[in-house]
Design a protein that fits this description.
Shape: elongated
Structural class: mainly beta
Oligomer: single chain
Helix content: 10-25%
Number of helices: 6
Order of helices and strands: HEEHEHEEEHEEEHEEEEEEEEHEEEEE
Length: 393
């Protein structure tokens, strides 16, 4: 009844967790050769003035700026006005790739809730959920996704995980709270960025619906909307697979004809959390702040790409940071990069260990120790550039 790339996100986050948990706590002393690559970019987007009213429980990374709206005029009623005729059809056939119609919007925010109660493939009780907030801007290009996952300890190694990803132009930030922050360019992190982009695209989640009847006009996100209800009988044969029963609602703005609200309540196979079992899935997506003014900032914990006190070559590009690990690209030659780190780490009082590994003038792994702490420097030739990774063991 819905499509999802959320399990791919779990796999991605598991990999990042493994990287983060391998880091140490102590960082080397700062040195005068470290580059200052701080970036405190914040993006203000939108066209109209307006305040969202009260904030939801999870603090968003992107917030509305203005405070002049009358809250009562934009409050979502959720109630149906049956005596009001729709501006659209009396029965809705909905194709998400064609009918979401968000491309014409300059900015919007959406709140996402997803819960699963049921059993896994072995018959064990499962309770899992996600709560998220998304901010999208078309011009200038910027987006923010904050997501809290619960009940997935086996996949993530923790009962609850909250992360925030932000894109500001070509800059990408991934904040995983106590586990650290990864920063870099969107181009350099293409596969990861693509996964997060898919999570903010409703057409990647919704399925086709046929002949859903009109049930009334409701207000969602301060917008009068034609609403339609459906059940499993309104699904295509392909979408019915794995669904025992289900109901849902979809609301379309009377002006602009874009989606303002989606909800699904399904009993059947779990194809979101990949438990291999069956149960009840509830999904809700509410759109607000359409074409209003927002401020999208980098996450507070990674508003600067720092060198962590490690030496950095002057021509460093695409620097990324995650926990106590730093990585970047350089056009400095392989051998010159090795000489640089041997000289700079020695100047910081570190001694090179006798377990340095060299391979065909294309890969080097060097360990430097000081006062019981060990810093590993990996230098790898990657086409016309050299990739440098420095981190605490």
């Amino acid at each position: 009844m819905y499509k999802s790339n959320y399990y791919l996100l779990l796999v991605l986050l598991c990999g990042l967790l493994l990287v983060a948990c391998g880091g140490g706590e102590t960082e080397p002393e700062a040195n005068s050769n470290s580059n200052d690559t701080s970036n405190t970019t914040e993006t203000e987007v939108g066209t109209d003035d307006g305040e969202r009213g009260s904030e939801p429980e999870m603090k968003p990374t992107a917030v509305a700026l203005d405070s002049n709206d009358d809250e009562t005029s934009t409050e979502d009623t959720g109630s149906t006005t049956n005596d009001e005729a729709p501006t659209g059809p009396m029965a809705l056939s909905f194709n998400p790739s064609r009918d979401i119609k968000l491309d014409a919007l300059q900015t919007y925010r959406l709140d996402l809730t997803m819960n699963f109660e049921g059993t896994d493939g072995d018959g064990n009780a499962v309770s899992a959920g996600m709560v998220g907030q998304v901010m999208i801007s078309k011009e200038p290009p910027a987006s923010s996704l904050s997501l809290t996952m619960t009940g997935m300890e086996d996949e993530l190694g923790t009962e609850e995980l909250t992360f925030t990803s932000v894109q500001l132009g070509d800059a990408f930030y991934l904040d995983m709270g106590e586990l650290g922050c990864m920063t870099g360019s969107s181009a350099d992190m293409g596969e990861m960025v693509a996964e997060f982009d898919s999570l903010t695209d409703p057409s990647e989640i919704m399925s086709e619906i046929e002949d859903a009847p009109f049930v009334g006009v409701e207000t969602h996100g301060g917008v009068a909307s034609d609403c339609y209800e459906f059940d499993e009988s309104n699904l295509t044969e392909e979408e019915k697979e794995g669904v025992e029963s289900g109901t849902g609602k979809i609301c379309i703005a009377q002006e602009g004809e874009y989606v303002t609200y989606i909800s699904l309540d399904v009993v059947g196979e779990d194809d979101v959390f990949e438990t291999g079992g069956q149960g009840r899935m509830f999904f809700e997506m509410a759109f607000t702040d359409v074409n209003e003014t927002f401020k999208i900032d980098p996450p507070a914990t990674c508003d600067a790409v720092e060198s962590l006190g490690y030496p950095v070559l002057d021509d460093a590009t695409d620097m990324a940071q995650f926990g106590s690990m730093m990585t970047y690209g350089t056009t400095t030659s392989f051998n010159d990069a090795i000489d640089f780190y041997r000289a700079e780490m020695s100047a910081l009082g570190y001694s090179e260990g006798d377990d340095t590994l060299m391979l065909d003038n294309s890969m080097a792994s060097m360990n430097f120790s000081k006062d019981g702490d060990t810093v590993t420097v990996a230098i790898i030739v990657n086409g016309e550039t050299v990739q440098v990774t420095v981190g605490q063991e």
